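Q:
My hope is that you can spare some time for a protein that puzzles me. I hope you can help me see how the letters and the tokens relate. Thank you; the sequence and its tokens follow:
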Amino acid sequence: MKRSLLLCALVALSLPAYAEDPQAAFHSFCAEWMQKLQAREHHNITNIKWHTSNGKVEGSFVGYTREHVCAEKTGTDAVPVGTITYREVRYEKHGNSIAEAELSPARPVETTEITEIFRYSNGRWIY
């Protein structure tokens, strides 16, 4: 009897202890991830490297769509896994001067669909 209780206790201690529901936590994690991408896009816009060629100024930066899909697979004995799918867009800006190029509308020139995969471990989602 004592041996089986000890064995049960050891097995319980070896299982991952989730601090909160991984599925509920993933929705918050996903929203935070998308906010980080928006912050990265802002950084990219404010740090465009401008190039001059034939009297024209050109620069590009990477941005991210706001549309995204968050999906998680939980509820099995396996480690919970989540994905976030969104599009990364390379934009260009043009003008006769840097000031004019900065004010010009960004033109999308390349779009790539991105799928990020995350796992849940020790009570949190990990990249």
Notes: The first strand starts at residue 51 and ends at 53.
